[in-house]
Every structure is written in structure tokens, then in C-alpha cells.
Amino acid sequence: MLLCTMEPRFCETDALGHINNTVVPMWFETGRTPVFEIFNPGQHLNTWNVILRKIDVDFVAQIYYGHPVEIRTRVGHVGSSSFVCEHEAWQRGSLVATGSAVMIYFDFEQQRKQEITAALRAELEKLR
After folding, report:
1. Would the pLDDT of 48 be above 90?
2. Could you tell me if 91 and 69 are in contact, meaning their C-beta atoms sit under 8 angstroms apart?
3. pTM
4. What is the pLDDT of residue 17?
5. Structural domains of the chain, ranges and CATH numbers in brackets
6. Which of 77, 86, 92, 96 has its CA 20 to 30 A from that of 17?
7. Contact at 8 Å (CB) between 59 and 92?
8. Does 13 have pLDDT greater than 90?
9. Does pLDDT of 50 surpass 90?
10. What does the alpha-carbon distance between residue 9 and residue 64 come to, in Å, rounded to a whole number?
11. Residue 78 class from Cβ within 10 Å (0-12 exposed, 13-18 middle, 19+ buried)?
């Protein structure tokens, strides 16, 4: 499992005084950064090779400014050309959001998905 801590910013709050729902998907993307590194060491945009197919977020509880949020990321299902990242957000010892992202291993020159290699699959399996 991958862990990262987000410090909610004041600008991420909304009129109701909690973290806006548009922020959590960005935090989950930050949690996927080490996964991107597996596919593209150095994360150079000219060699980028993963794309987002689908995301979902379930808001379990309100998230507040002034308290860090721990993002927990793990790899779920790994298919032939896609994989799923599963996310949890925790604040003050409570689960506040869950979500997932379906990622596609993609060849931008050919404009099509590509087969996940055995070496990449082995690295993803370490995050299950």
C-alpha cells in the first residue's frame, strides 16, 4: 500500500466549510504518483504511457480544513492492458472517502492500448 499525506488548503474549502468534492479526485491522483513512476520513470511527458479511463469517488464523511488527510492507495485488479488503483482518504482516524481509478497502459504513437508486460505486472503486484 502507498501512503501520502495531504494538507488541506483554505482555498479547497467551500461555502459549507468543508473540503470541496472536486478536491478529493486530485488527492487520489497524487496518491497514484508512485504507480505512474513504475510505468514512466522520471514521469517525462514525452514518454507518458498511461491514461485514465474512469474514476469514482464515494464521500463517506465531511473533510475539514486544518487537519491532514492520509491517502492510501493500492492496486486492485490487473488486466491485460488495464489496472485499477483503489483509494481511501482518512482524516483524524476516520475513513472520509473511497474511490478507484481504471488506468490503461497506452501507446500514444499508435493511439491504442498496449499489453502490460510481465515486468510491469510484477511491480503492480507488489502494490496489491
Report:
1. yes
2. yes
3. 0.95
4. 87
5. 2-125 (3.10.129.10)
6. 86
7. no
8. yes
9. yes
10. 10
11. middle
Grid coordinates representing 15 are 461555502
Own/partner long-range contacts of 6-13 (Cβ < 8 Å, ≥24 apart):
6/30, 6/68, 6/69, 6/70, 6/71, 7/68, 7/69, 8/63, 8/64, 8/65, 8/66, 8/67, 8/68, 8/69, 9/65, 10/65, 12/65, 13/65
CA 49 to CA 58: how far, in whole Å? 27
Q: What is the mean pLDDT of residues 78-99?
A: 98
Residues near 63 by beta carbon (within 8 Å), at least 6 away in sequence: 8, 18, 19, 23, 24, 69, 89, 91, 96, 97
Which residue matches cell numbers 492520509? 70
The residue count of the chain comes to 128
